[in-house]
Amino acid sequence: MENHPFRIAVETHNSLESVAHLLDPDIIFFSPLAITPIVGRDLVLNVLQNVLPVIKNIKCIEELRQDNKTVLVWAGEIDGYPVQAVDIITNGSDGKVKEIRLMARPFPVMKLLYEQVIERMKLIVPDAVLDLK
Predict the structure, then answer these.
(1) Which DSSP category does 17 fall into?
(2) pTM of the predicted structure, to 2 decimals
(3) Element (DSSP H or E) covering residue 27
């Protein structure tokens, strides 16, 4: 089984623009940093470009596929603390990525990530709900 293109881009630190053609223009991204989904290829790429540099030593430790779904299990570090994440990727019949659901732990480390990128996130996705205030 060949690795998913999203995995390849993250692991090789390629620019996410290199996989832009793989994403559906109306992709839906469920981020642990936002309460509401982030919709649209340009917004999703912009969010990822601002968040991924904060996460160091990213490595996919497992990839599972069934039909049009791919599950990627990740490990990495934020400010020296370990973080784990799971991407559930749904591809459409045209092969384009239609949806990414990202779940991550532990909460205190994700809070560090949130604190580092929240101001940029507010500019990138002003209509997304980013906090409960």
Answers:
(1) G
(2) 0.91
(3) strand 23-30
Task: Give exposure, 5-41, as e/b (b: 16+ Cβ within 10 Å).
Answer: bbbebbeeeeebeebeebbbeebbbbbebbeebbebb
DSSP 32-50: TT-SSPEESHHHHHHHHHH
Nearest one of 20, 31, 126, 100 to 9, comparing CA atoms: 20
Q: Tokens for 52?
A: 């991924």
Q: Got the DSSP string for 46-102?
A: HHHHHHGGGSEEEEEEEEEEETTEEEEEEEEEETTEEEEEEEEEEE-TTS-EEEEEE
How far CA 11 is from CA of 41, 124, 128, in Å, comes to 20, 24, 28
Nearest to 71 by CA among 62, 84, 79, 80: 62
CA-based torsion, 79, 83, 59, 86: positive or negative: negative
> How does pLDDT run across 43-100, given as a tens digit for each residue?
999 998 889 889 999 999 999 999 999 999 999 999 999 999 999 999 999 989 999 9
User: How far is residue 6's CA from residue 19's CA, in Å, rounded to a whole number?
Assistant: 7
Q: Which residues pair with 56 in a beta bridge?
A: 77
